[in-house]
Structure prediction request, 111 residues.
Amino acid sequence: MTVARSVALFVVAALFEIGGAWLVWQGTREHRGLLWVGAGVIALGLYGFVATLQPDGEFGRILAAYGGVFVAGSIGWGIVADGYRPDRFDLAGAAVCLVGMAIIMYAPRGG
Prediction:
């Protein structure tokens, strides 16, 4: 159950961080305005809070592992929100990052 909770928290964190960054991008680069930027800043703050809910207490481990989720999630966000078409190298790289995340977070530790 702890792994399922951890994975769910990573997904929620990714939605807040990637979504927040996308909102700031849209507000600034696509000239949608300060309301979009403000919503993005709030979402980014929520991302920081969600990361603290991970069952593991090691900040460095959580953020390092989250990096893999961020990479894969960013590609997914690009597909859904912007019509991005990843190539096989994008997908392979994202898969490698997710494997790295799983090793960092969920490998058995003996001590």
In short: The mean pLDDT is 95. Helices lie at 2-29, 34-51, 59-82, 88-106.
